[in-house]
Design brief:
By secondary structure, the protein is of the alpha/beta class. It has helices at 18-34, 59-78, 80-83, 95-102, 126-134; strands at residues 9-14, 37-44, 87-92, 108-112, 139-142. Strands 3-2-1-4-5 form a five-stranded parallel β-sheet, with helices on both faces. Helix 4 runs parallel beside helix 5.
């Protein structure tokens, strides 16, 4: 994810949660205000991948599946025209670490308040909490409207 020095980059993390869709909408609106480009980042990882044995799955299939799902989610959430203006990145790794790297040099990093895992009562998810404490740019944490 190289940075063009003339580009105002707005990075948003997507994980399939309602909160991340709200973050995507916020990122698109903000990018429109500043003349920036939205970079949507989806992270995939295989639990236990780094254990004592190698993965028993085809990692390329998982990446392709994530890429297809992300493309469909962008179209469903934003509509085809707006989705086409969003740059997509599907990266293997730890979600918080990948988002922090993607946000280097960005105007802002936008994440949902809670992802798909964790406790429903938690105010912040582990990824949003981690990036808010370690990002090199401002972080916006967007809460889902449903309670």
């Amino acid at each position: 994810m190289n940075r063009d020095v003339s580009e105002l980059k707005v990075v948003v993390g997507l994980d399939g949660s309602r909160s991340s869709y709200e973050a995507l909408h916020w990122a698109v609106r903000y990018a429109g205000l500043i003349g920036g480009t939205v970079h949507a980042v989806a992270v995939w990882e295989l639990p236990g991948l780094y254990g004592w044995s190698g993965p028993a799955v085809d990692m390329d299939v998982d990446e392709d599946e994530t890429r297809q799902k992300m493309s469909q989610e962008l179209t469903d959430v934003l509509g085809a025209d707006t989705a086409g203006s969003v740059r997509t990145h599907v990266v293997h790794g730890n979600p918080a670490d990948v988002l922090l790297r993607a946000a280097e040099g960005a105007e802002v990093l936008v994440v949902g308040s809670r992802g798909r895992g964790g406790f429903a009562r938690a105010l912040l998810g582990s990824v949003s909490q981690h990036v808010s404490q370690h990002a090199s740019c401002p972080v916006v944490i967007v809460r889902s409207q449903d309670r």
